[in-house]
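Trying the structure run again after the queue cleared.
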Amino acid sequence: MEGSSVKTLKKIYVFCGANYRKDESYVKAVHRLGEVLGKIGINLIYEGGSLGLMGCVSTAAAVHGRRVLGIIPLAFTEKNLIGKTCGKELKVATMHKRLLKMMEFGDAFIALPGGFNTLDELFQVVSWAQLNIHQKPIGVLNVNGFFDGLLSFLDHAVEQNFIT
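Done. Tokens:
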């Protein structure tokens, strides 16, 4: 595409939970994401470790031939809270440093089902996009309607003119 400003995605940062005890469809969806990343040649960056959905998506991406990088705050490694990282590991001093590295290394962002940290990182990249700090694609993989309530809330915030 001559003259196109479309950037080829090489690395996607995935936010997701370290837990999935409730619904195996989450596991199937993140395995499929790892498989798709492998087929289309996109490497994975994630929060690190081997627990829950983070472990599933990283293993699936690695099995399908993609490079995997886990970015982990030191507090998580010192207490061994997340298990062994699949692929390379980059240790950073704080959660904020992880956000900065995430922004530096990721060409796009995908949120999968997760908890407070997943939501924190998702809203951080969304707010930075709104402030024109970056123009990278952001998406959610809405497995079994996991994000329906959040998306409804965001629609309401737009209707009330708190979000544009």
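The CA atoms of residues 130 and 162 lie 13 Å apart. Worth checking whether this holds up in the mutant runs.
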